[in-house]
């Protein structure tokens, strides 16, 4: 599940991506061949892969919200 990481919040990607021109028809980030087409991977100090979308938001692909707890 792709989520948007804010300073102190984790929100579903559909809350932001639904209005993005680069999103697919269902309001999700575009994924091609297992890679995000609208974001680039960031160097991360955690084991959680993070991405920077072209609109400037930070995304993470998580299995559950417990992964986001610090």
Distance between the termini: 18 Å
- Helical fraction equals under 10%
Domain unit count: 1
**Principal-axis shape:** globular
Number of strands: 7
**Overall SS class:** mainly beta
Average pLDDT number: 83
Order of helices and strands: EEHEEEEE
| Adjacency order of strands in the biggest sheet | 2-1-7-6-5
Radius of gyration, in angstroms, nearest whole number: 11 Å
Q: Tell me what portion of residues adopts beta-strand conformation.
A: 25-35%
**What's the helix count?**
1
Oligomeric description of these chains: single chain
- Biggest beta sheet summary: 5 strands, antiparallel
Low-pLDDT ranges: none
Please characterize this protein's 3D structure:
A hairpin with a 2-residue loop joins strand 3 (31-32) and strand 4 (35-36). This protein has one domain (2-68). A five-stranded antiparallel sheet has the order 2-1-7-6-5. A two-stranded antiparallel sheet has the order 3-4. It has one helix at residues 14-17; strands at residues 2-5, 10-12, 31-32, 35-36, 39-42, 50-53, 58-61. The relative contact order is 0.25. Helix content is 6%, strand content 33%. With 70 residues, the chain is mainly beta. The chain contains one helix and seven strands, in the order ββαβββββ.
